[in-house]
Design a protein that fits this description.
Strand content: over 45%
Radius of gyration: 21 Å
Low-confidence stretches: 5-13, 15-23
Strand order of the largest sheet: 1-2-3-4-5-6-7-8
């Protein structure tokens, strides 16, 4: 009887542990198809902004900041492009908020931050970092 009770206890603990596990949430689950196409395009899309000489363009040599979103290794990431180098950030969620897009991401130390896309057109968007510094970024698709 005692062994049977122990086996039942092990079985129920296994069931409880299995039920507690869930698949990771799809970071793009709340992104409209139009916004998904805007972010990822049909190839590779770069958002380039903060021009060095006052004019933004699709040449990264003239930008102080850029973002390239990608899906790889079962997750969604973006490369943050800066003159000092490229930093890959993990996307936690992407949400369509009417005409805009809210991105919650985490850096290498898992500190969360937000990118907010607003005033979206086919060629550009205003992007703000933690709703502080908003700049226009060109949407450059290759």
């Amino acid at each position: 009887m005692r062994i049977r009770n122990q086996l039942l206890l092990v079985f129920f603990c296994g069931v409880i542990a299995a039920c507690g596990k869930s698949e990771p949430k799809d970071p793009m689950a709340e992104l409209t198809p139009e916004h998904k196409t805007f972010i990822f395009g049909n190839g590779r899309v770069a958002f380039l902004g903060k021009p060095v000489n006052g004019r933004i363009g699709c040449d990264f040599k003239n930008a102080e900041q850029g973002y390239v979103f990608k899906i790889e290794n079962g997750g969604v990431f973006f490369d943050s492009l800066r003159p000092s180098g490229i930093i890959t950030q993990r996307v936690i969620s992407m949400t369509s908020n009417g005409d805009g897009i809210d991105v919650v991401a985490a850096n290498g130390t898992e500190s969360k931050f937000n990118l907010t896309f607003s005033n979206i057109t086919d060629q550009s968007a205003d992007i703000s970092y933690d709703n502080i510094d908003t700049s226009i970024f060109l949407r450059c698709e290759k």
